[in-house]
Fold this sequence. Notes:
mainly alpha, Rna Polymerase Sigma Factor, Chain: A, Arc Repressor Mutant, subunit A, 9 helices, 77% helix
Amino acid sequence: MGNVRKGQLSDLSELFDRYHLAIFNFFFKLTRDRQKSEDLTQNLFYRILRYRESYHDEKGSFKSWMYQMARNIHLDHCKQQKRISDIVKDSLSVCEHERAMETAVYVEKDYEDLQVALGKLGPVDRELILLSRFEGLKYHEISKIKNMSEGSIKVQIHRAIKQLKIFYFKQQNT
């Protein structure tokens, strides 16, 4: 990213190749919409290019800077659509619909149960779990993204995982 910041724009293709799938999956887990996820991924890399001068190595890793930008893009998208409260309803209905479909892409019951349980979490808890467990960000990176203390992030993630376990095991027992 340092090279891109200095004007070597062709190096952005290497970053795109390395991160576009992870970013798409991050957006897909938040939106549950393939087309929106593709659009948001494209918007992210456009913003990386546009705001490349705001990246500084000494302020943190490229990955945390990129996920901060991805998070902001998702929040902008939600505000633009005025659907923040509808996201929870949509994700629940999508999860229930996916569970009912026998021809789903992922037929493993455990995976389906996990997706249903994730869908039952609130958007803040779901985002924290996605960032920490699915995207592999460290607590200190998430604390920079969320502009919160690392201790607060640890507590929130601990509570979110505890709630996820409850939803997941209820799903397993039904």
